[in-house]
Amino acid sequence: MSHSENMELTENMVATILQIIIEFGGEGFKTFKSNLNNFQPHSHLKVKPQKMLLYLLPAWKTDESSIVGNIEVNDAIIDKLHLKDHPEFKNQAQIVVGDQLSVAQFRSIKNLCAGHEGGPEGFFWGITIPRLFPTKIADIYGLLLTYFGKPNAGTLNPGSLSFHNMHLERLPITLTSLLPFWVCRDLIFVLLYAQVLHCLLLVSKTGSLDNYLKKYGTWDQLMRHTQQIHGQFCSGGDIERLRWDQKVSMMDKAGEESLAPMDGNMVFENAILFMQDALLSLEFTDAIKANDPGHIILVLRMFALSFHGNGCLKYTYKMLHVIHHLKHIWPDTV
Q1: Which of 50, 66, 187, 275 has the fewest CB atoms in 10 Å of its CB?
Q2: Is the pLDDT of residue 32 over 80?
């Protein structure tokens, strides 16, 4: 990412923190909603809400998990919508959106047809893009598996399933049998909201949100504290410093890592990492709601790294494929 893109992403993260504070900080923060609307950043690619035509098609007995099934689905759509009757159909590119498996199967069809078929039968007209909702599902489950750890990680750690299982007083949540997507998403986002509000009290040195409103009641002060939250608790530089301190403390006189770590703070380090990734996930949701492709593309670039870290290598490949084609292959009109 370029310097300007990093600055844009930072501005988006600050706006997301502001949104959390104003939305969940209580009635006293609602007065800043108009300021937030005026501050809300957007890219030059943002489009106005549009109404799209929907063409309802009947259900078919087709196995979409196979290459042959995807060819049959494509042929059925073209036949039912009479697309071949359109004079420009053969000369126009078509956007194909699907989950990770459907996109992979469609690209396999193009590879098989390469050098053998031409025209519409060669499937080179298709621009494959992964659906955003399955990408969101992969991100949320990756966050849960990465940060919430084992169910027996400790009942005092709010970032563990053991803590939530004890306080929710329900059937325990386990990594081997995860809850539906929306429940997992709410579990992550509620913890993020609590962290952001707690960090607001830390940077302002106030004991409660009511005291904060009494002591700091202007938009400029709230904006300054929000930037401090991002700088102190969402900084990759702090993570590198903590890891370096830990590594140095483990060195013996011979310069080998053989001692127990004496410096560093892995709990604080993991809290920063969680806050970074959870804010990015919330920004992805907001960018979709705002209909802003520019912000979505920025998040997808970061998702390529996070998917690689949590083991979702197929989604990593899809993110890199979309980023590469947007930058080097597809024209600006796409």
Answers
A1: 50
A2: yes
Residue with tokens 């310069």: 255
Distance of CA 284 to the CA centre of its chain: 5
Distance CA 104, CA 257 (A): 44
CA distance 75 to 79: 6
* Whether pLDDT at 80 is above 90: no
Strand partners of residue 128? 96
Torsion of CA 318, 320, 326, 329, to 10 degrees: -90
Q: What angle do CA 117, 122, 126 make, to 5 degrees?
A: 165
According to DSSP, residue 126 is labeled: E
- What six digits make up the tokens of 245? 């301190």
Q: Could you tell me the pTM of the whole model? A: 0.83
Evaluate if residue 254 carries a pLDDT over 70.
no
Helical segments of 40-177, H only:
67-80, 100-113, 132-147, 161-168
Cβ atoms within 10 Å of 211's Cβ, excluding its own: 13
What number is the average pLDDT over the span 231-248?
77
Of 27-41, 62-76, 90-104, 121-135, where does the model show the most confidence? 27-41
> What does the alpha-carbon distance between residue 166 and residue 155 come to, in Å, rounded to a whole number?
7
Residues 106, 108, 112, 118, CA torsion sign: positive
Question: Considering just the CA atoms, what is the radius of gyration of the chain in Å?
Answer: 24
Closest of 220, 268, 199, 276 to residue 13, by C-alpha: 276
Tell me what percent of the chain is helix, strand and coil, each rounded to the nearest 5. Answer: 65, 5, 30
